[in-house]
Amino acid sequence: AALDAKLKAKGRAYYGNILDTNTVNTAQVTNILNSEFGAITAENAMKWDATEPNRGQFNFGNADQVANWATSRGKLLRGHTLVWHSQLPGWVSGINDRNTLTQVIQNHINQLAGRYKGKVYAWDVVNEVFEDNGQFRNSVFYRVLGEEFIDIAFRAARAVDPAAKLYINDYNLDYAGPKINATLALVERLRSRGTPIDGIGSQAHLIVGNLAGFEEQLVRLGQTGLDVAITELDIRIAKPVDSNKLAQQQRDYELVTRACLNVPKCVGITIWGVSDRNSWVDSTFPSYDSPLLWDDNYNRKSAYNGADVAL
Ligand code: XIL
């Protein structure tokens, strides 16, 4: 039956999915979440622009709705995300002195992680800090504070919610190259200076037929000894979608699910959406389509069987 129950039976923590205000009242979505998935990430509601649009002015309405939906149904909650250059309000990007930015980061984390203290299984503490070439992204955080912004964020998160697992999260960690190397090197530096970090999230926004190195790279993440999670899985198809590509997508979902099972430290998988109807892929990658396990009409695709057969 449910993907979550089967992955748990293999000793892992969850098979999860996302929820937000655009889907929380859509019964077709929530019924599937209820029966198939055991963890919830808020697609947008916990991001900085949604939670602190002006300095010191916090809005938790949407985030509460997602958090309450999950916790009242016994689902794990993944917090996403505390420090990220995107969906970041302009008032933060304009800060140019170290003390102010440090206080702003600490206060944001205290308020956000404090509100959900004890309810969050894991926080994506920092998201997408590297460029694909392995250089740090030129965000306001890196420009003003250098690499130390990452230590500041992890330390603040640990102090406010000591029970939450603390993750670094990024995309394009699914093939060999400078980005995964830089991520692994950063993790070692953080640990060597005693900064608390528990896990590495591989977003896994993938393209059908393009997964040759996926498991090998997940193994490398697991060799750190930290927890590993696949945090935002989707596998998009170049238009036009046809039956061959859908069959390949089925094999690809099987491959990713097996990869997690083959990495002992892989605690869980989160798919970035239920129905193709609501996927971010439509607007972000207009020449791609159909990345998820349920189609535009909430019918199961063969991709579902790919995930299921691996379990
Ligand atoms: C995406 C959401 O799915 C969209 O609704 C939003 O418009 C943009 O952000 N990496 C992340 C996620 O960490 O937060 C992003 O989510 C997808 C890429």
From TrEMBL:
Catalytic activity: Endohydrolysis of (1->4)-beta-D-xylosidic linkages in xylans
A GO molecular-function annotation: endo-1,4-beta-xylanase activity
Domain (GH10): residue spans on this chain: 20-310
PROSITE patterns: GH10_1 (PS00591), GH10_2 (PS51760)
Active-site positions on this chain: 232
EC number assigned by the record: 3.2.1.8
GO terms (BP aspect): polysaccharide catabolic process
Keywords recorded for this protein, A-Z: Carbohydrate metabolism, Glycosidase, Hydrolase, Polysaccharide degradation, Signal
Annotated SUPFAM superfamilies: (Trans)glycosidases
Similarity comment: family membership: Belongs to the glycosyl hydrolase 10 (cellulase F) family.
Protein name as catalogued: Beta-xylanase
